[in-house]
Amino acid sequence: MATTRPRRRISARQVREAAAEAAALLWRCGPVRLSAFLAMTTAVAVVPVLTAWLTKAVLDRLATTGAAVAAPAAGLVAAGLATALLPVAARFAREQVGRSASRGATDRLFAALGRQAGLRRFEDPAYQDRLRLAQDSARRLPELVDGAGSLVSGVLGLTGFLGSLLLLSPLLTVVVLGTAVPVLLAEFSLARRRSATEWHVERFHRREFFYGHLLTGVDAAMEIRLFGIGGFLRTRMMGERERADAARRRVDARQAVVQGALKAASAGVAGYGLWWAVTTARGGGLTVGDVSMFVAAIIGVQAALSGLTAAVTGGQARLLAFTHYVAVLRAEPDLPTVADRPAPALRHGIVLRDVWFRYSDDHPWILRGVDLTIPHGYAVALVGLNGAGKTTLVKLLCRMYDPTRGQILWDGVDLRDLSPASLRERISAVFQEHMNYDMTAAENIGLGDLTALADRPRLVGAAERAGVHERLAALPYGYDTPLTRTFILGMDNGDDGPDAETGVVLSGGQWQRLALARSLVRAGRDLMILDEPSSGLDPEAEHEVHERIREHREGRTSLLISHRLSAVRDADLVAVLADGRIAEHGPHDALLAADGTYARLFRLQAAGYQAVP
Ligand SMILES: Nc1ncnc2c1ncn2[C@@H]1O[C@H](COP(=O)(O)OP(=O)(O)OP(=O)(O)O)[C@@H](O)[C@H]1O
């Protein structure tokens, strides 16, 4: 699959889908709270119109001798109370609706991410841009709740005040409405432009984040200090921010000009209307109450219009951004599954048949017709120079990608026909680039098989086999010690005191043993993959680990990748990957006798050791 470039235009259909998805999400996350919020928002919108009419009634009755004023005055008091209290209650409801919807949206987003069974999407920068915008949209879902509230109050306020204005001056009503249409159209266009800009600048933000992460994290701290590259990275980081700001500045400038012109036009209409009301009242055509009503209506219409415009355009901007959320949610799985059968227990073996692979159409071929059989119960070793494609082959075996051409057969069934999750259930692996989780030691092992997480003897057994048990048992809290100095873990009492300073950092080799323990805890899997499991170990530890692995591999199907050829010599079968194909394969002795690449590399390494006096 080629890397997809995003289309920068978002269609009306996508916006409609985003609106439907957002509405459904808001409703699902709390129908009662959402209804309460909308009811209160409606009340908040109606009260000002009511207040204007009550004020007119009070003023007109005051101007008429003998007219009773108590009832409208009491109504005004009640309206004042409602004006003060309703927004507070509405805001409380809005916070609750917004937070729970945002939680729900984030959960759904990450669940959707989990349905991407392979790695391809994660290596697509366009997808990463979308993902970031989607996460941001999920977090900012409360703003859509605001938008919905403002829309309701805007429509009601506008209808109420326009109705009032219509009674006083139909002509002015038409003029006011006439100014509203260009405002709305201009704001729509601005929102679209801003949304396209946000999409465009996401690449700058992700790079800024990358540099920021380097500068603030512990991983790169040592190199940054030693090489003195902190200033250089900071300059780059700020450069990315400036590029994003420059793109936004262009939209800001356009917005300032357009909005300034439109606001001046609105103010002109309002000023003319006021002039008309005052002169008409002077001539006896309007009462004092009418003038007060007129002023309230003009202000109300303007306020409702600007609120409505902000709600509609703000909502439109959020919806445009929310299309990225929907796109991630509905993205096709990156590994098309044909039959989705559960992977059966391995009885015969795995066969790679004329496997070709490249990471994308833009990348060179890495594998060019690999034919290899890993028979059931065999320990197979794969060797080759740096970049030969050994790890790539492992990724294909775990079905992180599908071969570009050719097939990988699991007991005769194409991996494409097996569900990726069930296939991986049957595999255990230590990856060359294994993870060091900022979690406790027990969790670092238990993540290999969640059923072992609460089973301490199983965790200890795996740690013993990986030769790391003694180190873990000696930690301040034993297996419950957090292996991090970055996070405070396990202290949920909110106390950041000295207790929380318990994290421990392991050495590179110790982390590697822990990764091995994590794979060993997945006991009884059909295939064990060991991609450079001992590269960071001292010679003694390496020897010891290989001894243990050897015992563990006995009678199991395994694939070992190692540059230490002494570690692969007792494999049942050694395969040499070169130029994208299996160049040689056979038992160690046979390959030595054949005197090919393997024999040359083996002798080179052996000579290196023997050269030591
Ligand atoms: N995700 C990726 N996208 C594009 N190219 C990649 C990716 N991963 C690896 N490659 C390229 O594929 C080639 C094979 O890499 P691979 O990691 O499989 O080699 P290897 O044999 O395991 O090497 P080593 O012995 O150094 O670990 C390399 O040229 C590498 O640049």
UniProtKB/TrEMBL annotation:
It comes from the Bacteria. The chain crosses the membrane at residues 34-55, 67-90, 144-165, 171-190. One of its GO terms (molecular function) is ATP binding. It is found in: Cell membrane. It is a multi-pass membrane protein. Keywords: ATP-binding, Membrane, Nucleotide-binding, Transmembrane, Transmembrane helix. Residues 38-317 form the ABC transmembrane type-1 domain. This is ABC transporter ATP-binding protein. It comes from Hamadaea flava.
